[in-house]
């Protein structure tokens, strides 16, 4: 039954996606979407409760937010098991790019190339497929950030970051050795097998307070979001710099904020020049996302680039959550208009693929098999990312998101004026739909949102974080704004 | 063109897979397979060379072994771009389970459930899909190792191991604190945000010399295979125990080998009781695979289980490469007939999915969001693993692999007698097709194998490692044995 639904939906949607405006009136990208959320039961309803109890026997459900039926989910709307259909501005923790059951993605997912990629998964480093170059060039590399023309594919954001760290450590030691041609010493060869320096050196990656870069052991050592992410895990003794705490509205606190950013830059430089384990690279998010939607100005990031250049430290920009259009640019760091590109940019989530971009040929290690693993990414996911990129271009979704974001932000500003104690530190102006605000009763707001038909996520201690998909339009923004009005009235 | 081929092949193959024997004569599982390797050009041929040069512009090709055309690959045979078709006993570094372009997998890969899983990838911990319990129960959990009824899904072998380490560290600290109900102290809460003990404790995972457990920072700290895997990477100061160096043939060195295993067990216990960072868990492969196909007896592993039980250390069995049938048991550790199950068993590769199994409810952390990440596995891959399990059952492939392995081993024994200086330390008897031998001119043997139509891999410094798929049959073994005879004659 359920499996039929997706086919029918898909058939109905194929070629049905319309242009943005018809006679000046906004026309939906997904005509099959409901016009508004549908609420049939409490959430979770009886069918969901039964299914959750069943799942709990084999899978930890304590973090479960909502059990979904994706066959019935379409566009911006997520369906549950009880007939409820919610406007979804959380989008699988900022991961669904172009809508549930997107017909263009469905076409890619049901292509013979996809079938072969799924059932014949290659060890890409050893046995790449004949069209791997083409898949990269017409997909992932087509959207490579300016100045970066190489990609190393991975499987998730956390390992994408760790692979970037590995590239940084190899690069650093190569500089220290005096070049790619210098062979490893007998001491290095023996000590590394014993996890000791100099073969396994005491180098570090500097990250920022409240940053999030993943939960494997290397990435977790750079993650500084919450104790629940880190407790009980051995960690590398790596340094953290302060991330600016900006005051809102920005225009009222320009001088104070500039001082705060200057203080953070100074401290970052102090750590880089004095930390006991030399800093090979820094990693920074354009907007600290899990950590509570903390923004900084382009000047701050350009300042970081200057400091890293000055001290020959690499700069890794973690675009796992910010990348792929949501900020109104394809990559959030484009907002900085930085002269020198970052050394590496990592991606995952909305790409439905993962990895890191780089430009400098020295970041290709000096020997084969240094940066290597069995799968080295997944052609199936690369094919899907290509379809996502095509869909974004076809519907002009980055520009569209910039516009819708401005519209949504303006609406939230009005609500903030109406509920000054409920919507605090509204932020993300000019950053597409990558918008957040603080709420003194955040968890309650998120819970109530479901009762008015909207699925919203939080971040940090008290941020309401908006992460709509790129197909979020003004009429969806209107539904969301109305929902906030209802929630905050109560 | 190429995409048509896979459809045609698939259509031709559907329902064409035959039973094992017809009138006592072995009948191929894949009637569409060539009867023998096809050699048209040198490898790489002109078309491959051109494609490799193209790929090298955007992707590191120094580890490239062979560029493949998977649309034209079928069953045990891998095709390149120049019309060459090789018998593949390397199988994407031991990762292809039931043959290229397998029609049963193709059916799963082209199902509406798969399409939805691909285009609607959920954040499983927050928004699991309605049929996730069923997918687990009818798939991954159906083959759970004895004594383990829970699974945590992941994306690759390396992160599967790291997630198991995380479970071990949380478990250990919970014991030390006095139970799941004991809250974290203010000191733990503040120190963990600074990567310092006690919040980020100095606990360790003990692994074994020449073991391989992955290449992310935690897993790499337990990997002890080769310097090229570890060089320049900061590593945790974790201990390694010796792994037995057995002498072959086993029956001639029984006493010596038993002494060697006793020595290694003694040293393992000494480390566990004295190492400066308490050992939370040990991780061990049933056969050290990347490290050179190093085997140990069931008695050794049972001894390890006894030591770990005695000292309340967890035992993680890394079945990333040994799991899913190749040893003639679904899980290689079944060969041990161990009374107590291991605490955790990790998997990836042939499962085309990844994660770890566990049985003890205490290995579910005491709070939500402690063992968590955005994706927590991939329903698309879980669906594929279910199809693989069904195919293994339908064709009785585990038993089949045990039998074919015995046949292959007997043939290699004869060759070893014929070429006593070329085939050394033949090992893997009774371990299905998970067979290896040492070769004094290993790299040359692997290279020459292609000229006689066979794709073979190596491991460690000088092992020829055989990793046929589970659909490898006696007539394929004959081709492989004949190929070895040709190579070794030269």
Automatic annotation (TrEMBL), chains A, B:
GO CC, one annotated term: mitochondrion
Domain of life: Eukaryota
Enzyme class: transferase
Keywords, comma-separated and alphabetical: Aminotransferase, Pyridoxal phosphate, Transferase
Cofactor(s) the protein needs: pyridoxal 5'-phosphate
Pfam families hit by this protein: Aminotran_3 (PF00202)
Stretches assigned to coiled coil: none
Keyword Transferase attributed: yes
GO biological processes: gamma-aminobutyric acid catabolic process
Keyword Transferase on entry: yes
Reaction(s) this enzyme catalyzes, per UniProt: 4-aminobutanoate + 2-oxoglutarate = succinate semialdehyde + L-glutamate
EC number: 2.6.1.19
A GO MF label: pyridoxal phosphate binding
Similarity comment text for this entry: Belongs to the class-III pyridoxal-phosphate-dependent aminotransferase family.
Descriptive protein name: 4-aminobutyrate aminotransferase
